[in-house]
Amino acid sequence: MIEDYEVFDAVRRGYSDFEYSDDNEIRDYFADIDADSAMGHVSNIKGILFEMEYVDTLAAKGIEAEIFEATNHPVTDIMIMDGLEVVDEMQLKATGSVTYINETLEAHPDVPVVVTTEVASSFDTDMVIDSGIENAVLEDAVTSTLIDEVVNPVNPLSVLGWLFGLPF
Questions:
Q1: pTM for the whole thing?
Q2: What's the number of domains the chain is made of?
Q3: Is the pLDDT of residue 151 over 60?
């Protein structure tokens, strides 16, 4: 399970304006954006969260990995370390789209791609690695922490109906 604080850490990593913001300031910002732009933010934060979660997954297996400092590092997202030496670099894709992964493999056939569990089973190559992390779990963590109020606002009439037993 992905905790709220991990989502907030991903926001702070991806949005320099929020580097020193508390959770409430971040929630307030996302509460004021429109639903259309919210989905772009979800995708961005989900990708950053995926990188962080996967590095944690590797650490739990005794594998040292680091995320590149820049969130827009060219081609790869994480490096696998052996002490101070970089022994491999990988690209991570938090998506449910097989087509997107195929395009990534065509663009960079020599770079391993770590993917979400939903798309991993569609590939039979050593260049695609199942992260063990579900795209749906990442998306749910981000939307439930930051976006649900924007995308699925609570209808005040339904709350009144619930309080007074009225059908709405």
A1: 0.86
A2: 1
A3: no
